[in-house]
Specification:
23% of the residues lie in helices and 38% in strands. With 73 residues, it is an alpha+beta fold. It has a two-stranded antiparallel sheet with strand order 1-2. A two-stranded antiparallel sheet has the order 3-4. The radius of gyration is 14 Å and the shape is globular. The two termini are 18 Å apart.
């Protein structure tokens, strides 16, 4: 079993756009997606669940683009 992680990394606009573009290209082609985050390679299968989350508090707003593997049942 993998150890728990909760990592947040800041990227420049150019780096973030490149990652989003690779993800969008993979989704359009029906391909799996791979990304490296903090020296760990993450594999996203073709069948994944995608959602956008919006959080708001008194001091900030946050938009999260989330990708979750679909677990086999």
């Amino acid at each position: 079993m993998k150890e728990e992680r909760d990592i947040e990394i800041d990227y420049s606009t150019q780096e973030f756009v490149a990652k989003l573009r690779r993800l969008a290209d993979a989704l359009e082609c029906g391909d799996k997606f791979e990304i490296q985050i903090a020296n760990e390679r993450i594999y996203v299968p073709v069948r994944a669940k995608y959602n956008i989350e919006h959080e708001r508090s008194d001091s900030e707003e946050e938009i999260e683009f989330q990708i979750k593997p679909v677990l086999k049942t």
